[in-house]
Structures are given as structure tokens and as C-alpha cells.
Design a protein that fits this description.
mainly alpha, 5 helices, 80% helix, globular
């Protein structure tokens, strides 16, 4: 283990691990019980199952990347995961604004702030 990996604070690993668990949980819920996640969507409509499975695959990939980079204590991988998180939630922010959905706007703003802060803190440790 390099000195850089050892210098990574435990709380960063805990937060990243929680995000990994969250993303993996959402992925499994979307795959096995989509009605519990998307209550307002007609799951019997043509093509909806494909979109749900694509979403589940995205969540699984992000959860796996977070888990792997947390286990490896890889600062570059954690940075990439949080950049992906940031881009994803900026998209959610714009979607919330276009749909006038206040809860989505607020949650996206919170996650944009958290992602930005984590990127800053992780890379601050690098220098």
C-alpha cells in the first residue's frame, strides 16, 4: 500500500462505501422490484422494462466502481467515480428544473455539493 493510499482518511472510505452500497441496492431494486422505485411509471408499457434495466445497469456499474475504488483505496478511481456522480446529478438538476420538480432539484443540489466536496477533499490529499 502506497503512502498516498494510507493517507486517505477513513471517513472518505466510509462515505464512498455507503455510496457503493446505495448504488448497488438501487440497482438490485430496479432489477428485481422496479415498482418499488418508480411508482408513477406504467411498467407494462412497451420499452419501459428496457429503460429500467439500462438504469439498473448504470447504477450497478457505479456501485461496483465505488466499491472497487474504496477497497483499493485508489484516489484516481475515487476521483473518477465522484466526477461521474457529479455529472449524473448535474443532469438530474437540469431535469428537475425542466420538470419543475422541487424535490429532484433539492436532492440534486445536495448531491452536486457532496460530490464536488468529495472531489476537492480527495484531491487535496494528493498534493
Amino acid at each position: 500500500m502506497t503512502e498516498e493510499q494510507r493517507s486517505l482518511p477513513i471517513w472518505i472510505l466510509v462515505v464512498s462505501g455507503l455510496f457503493a452500497l446505495l448504488e448497488l441496492s438501487v440497482s438490485f431494486l430496479l432489477f428485481f422490484s422496479p415498482q418499488s422505485v418508480v411508482e408513477t411509471v406504467d411498467l407494462t408499457a412497451k420499452g419501459v422494462d428496457f429503460v429500467i434495466y439500462m438504469w439498473a445497469a448504470r447504477q450497478f456499474a457505479l456501485g461496483f466502481i465505488f466499491a472497487f475504488s474504496t477497497i483499493k483505496r485508489s484516489i484516481p478511481m475515487l476521483t473518477i467515480a465522484y466526477i461521474f456522480f457529479l455529472v449524473m446529478f448535474v443532469g438530474d438538476l437540469f431535469m428537475g428544473i425542466s420538470q419543475k420538480e422541487n424535490s429532484l432539484i433539492i436532492s440534486a443540489l445536495v448531491m452536486v455539493f457532496i460530490s464536488s466536496a468529495m472531489i476537492f477533499v480527495i484531491n487535496k490529499k494528493r498534493s
